[in-house]
Amino acid sequence: MSDSQSPPEVTSRLNLDAADFDAYRLERAPSSELDEARLAIKKRFLDWASPVASRLKAFGIEAEIGGTDEQPSASNGHRVDHQRVLFWRDAEARARLERLLEQGRSLAAVLDIQRHRMHAHLALKIDAESVDVSVEIHPDAWVDFRNIRARLAQPDLALELTAALESLPEQYGLRVTVDDTIQLGGIDTNQLRDALDRAEATGLPLWIGWSVPRDLAIEHSALLEEQLEDAIVALAPVFRLIAWAPDNDCVELDREWMLARAAKVKAHEEAEREQAAWEAKKAADERREAERRAPRRDRATRRAAHPPESRAEPKTEADPAPAVVLPAPVPRTARRLSRGGRIVDVDPNGVVDRNAKVQVLSGAFEGKVGTVQELDGRGGARVLLGLLAVRIDVGDLGVVREGRERPTLASSHRRPGAPRQP
Fold first, then answer.
1. Low pLDDT (below 50) residues in the chain
2. Structure pTM?
3. DSSP 8-state code for residue 294
4. Are 87 and 48 in contact (CB under 8 A)?
5. Dihedral sign computed on CA atoms, order 168, 171, 177, 179
6. Per CATH, which fold does 9-251 belong to?
7. DSSP per-residue string spanning 325-364
8. What is the pLDDT of residue 206?
C-alpha cells in the first residue's frame, strides 16, 4: 500500500498496563484512594466505546453507552473490584421496560437492583485478572430471560440462536460461574436451557463472551484495542436474538403491556370513584348536621332550597383506556459493514487455501487481514485474526496480493500510540 493510501495514525485509547489492572485488586476495592485513577480508565473506556456504538448500528442496535461507578457507592456495594462500559437500551426504552419489570416488587427490592441488571447488555469489563467482552443477561432482566426461553421453545428460532453462537470465534464461551464455561462449538438448546436454569437458581447472570487474561492483554496492548472492538461487534447478532425488542418479541410482550396498562387504568378509575363517593358522603353529612343545629322554623326553608340528594353512589364516566402504542419495529439491517478504505488490494484469481493471507470482506471482522489455518471442506475456513480464531465462509474472504499483505498480529487499521506516561 502506498503512503497516500496508508490509514491515518490513531492514538491507542485503551493502552492497558499493569497499573490499570491493579486499580481493581480486591484489597483496594473499598478504598477511595484510586478514584482518580479509575475515573481516568473509565474515560478511556467511554472514548473507546463511541466508534463501537456506531458500528453496532449496522446490526440494527441503537445502543446507549453507560459506565459503572468508579468510586465506592451504594450501587456497587461500596466496592470497586471491576469497571464496565455498557451498551444497552436507550433511556426511554429502559424506563418503559422497567415499569413492567418492577411490578410486584417491593420498593426496597426495586431500589436494591442495579439498573444494568434489569436489561440484557453488551459490555467491556476490566478487573484485576482480565479484560473481557460479553453479552450478559441477569435473571432480574426477566423480560429478556423469558424471550430467550420462548425462542428456545420454537425449533426454527432456537436453531437461529445456536447457529449464531456457533459462528463466534472459538475463544468465546458461555458460563454462569467461572467454573462451568461451555464452549460454543456444537452447543444445543438443552445446554442453553440448563444454563438459564442455573442462572435463575443462583441469581447470577448468563455470560457469553471472550475473556483475555491480564498478562496477555498487557503483552498485546496495542493490538488489543482493535481486537476488543471487533470482538464486541461480533456479539451483535447474538444480542439481537436475545434482547427483547419490538421486532424480536418471542413472548408477545405487547399483550402483557396492554394488560398491565389496563389494570393500572382500572385501578385509577376505582380510586377516583371511591374519592368521589367519599366527598359526596362527607358533603351530605355536613348538610344534615347543619340542618340539625338550625332553628326549627328555618328547616322547611332550608329543605326547600336544598332538596335531599340521592344516597346512591355518584356515577362517573370512566375514560376509555388509552391505547398502548408500541414503537415501530426496528428493521433488520444487512450485516455487511461498509467502511471505506479498509479493503486492501485482493487478487480476484487467488485461491483460498491453507496458509494463504486473506482479508475478510464482510461481517464483524470486515477489512481484517489474517492467515488461513484450516479448511473444513464445507465452504468454511478457520482464519487467525490476531488473537482470535474465526470460522468464516470462503466466499467472504479475498486473497491478498503478493507484497500487499500486513502482519497478522498487527492492527489492521491502527498503529499503536505512544505509551502513556506514568
1. 1-10, 104-113, 258, 312, 324, 326-341, 404-419, 421-422
2. 0.69
3. S
4. no
5. positive
6. BirA Bifunctional Protein; domain 2 (3.30.930)
7. -PPPPPPPPPS----TT----EETT----TT-EEEE-SST
8. 95
